[in-house]
Amino acid sequence: MPVAAGAQTPRGEGNVSVTYQRLHTSGQLNTAGEFVAPDSTAAHSLILDVEFGVTNRLAVHASLPYMAVRFVGGPHPHLVGIHGQPSNLDDGNYHATAQDFHVGGRWILIQSRRMMLAPYADMVAPSHHYESLGQAVVGRDLRALVVGTAIGGFPDVLPGLYFQGQVSHAFVQKVLSVRANQSALDGEVGYFITPRIAARFIEAFQFTHDGIEFVGLRPAIVLHDTQETSRDIVLNHDRLLMTRVVNIGGGVSVGLSQTVDVFASATQSTWGRNIQRDHTFSAGVNVHFRTGSGTPVPRPETFPASPIG
Question: 88 in a domain, yes or no?
Answer without folding.
Answer: yes
